[in-house]
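Annex B. Sample input.
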Amino acid sequence: MADKIIFYVLTFFLYSAVGWFIESCYCSVRPRKWINRGFLYGPMCPIYGSGAVMLSLALGQFSRLSIHWHGFFITPVFTFLLGALLADVLEFFTSLIMEKLFHARWWDYSQKKFNIQGRICLTHTLYWGGATLIFLYFIDPRVSALLLSIPVTYRRIITGVIFAVFLVDLILTVKKTADLRKLTVKIDALTGELNRLRLETSEKAKELSAELHEQIDAVTDSARKLFTQNKIAAQLSEKAQQGKETMIRFFRINPGLRSRVSDKLNELKDLMERYR
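Annex B, continued. Sample output.
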């Protein structure tokens, strides 16, 4: 029993490393620079190791059954569907748990069609189904035979060393991610406080502006009333009216002068427009 557990633990580490390498290479093609797709510091994506072990335990024996329907061998069809379903369940709950624990997402399919909460999508479901067939019928039998060919003592030593390194890596990664989550929470709190202060400042500025406009209007009204009620202002206004009436009478008596003045004013306007 212990040797079987060690075998599956070693299988988990192997496929975690292989999955990390393939996904990192795939994601590095478009930006043309190396992108580490691992959650850990080391070269591992545990979700691939978990998926490989889960498929091997759940569907390894099933994939070797001989199921026929109307003369057709349909075991691969059921293997495809069950593998896709199991992979989706694993991917969905892994995303959910990691988001709850670390307040972050490591993948998001929201931009893809037929997705569920951005955690799984139809396109990757089909990928997982196809990968299940390739894994169970071609890869896993050969890899299992290779691992079983290693002497039990060596398998234990190799598994123990990798497990120790993996454990240290996991502890450091969890600590780093927890610190990052604390920082994110602080940033969110500061952002909320800044938004609150901005809103308060905006409201106060609007109140001050309205109050200032009211005071200006009040001063203007007071000045207008003071000027119109003042005797000197009334006399000035009366003299201006008299001067205006005198000018009108003058131009009525001298229509030619009015025409010349009008022409000169038009010339002056043309000059002003030309040299503006």
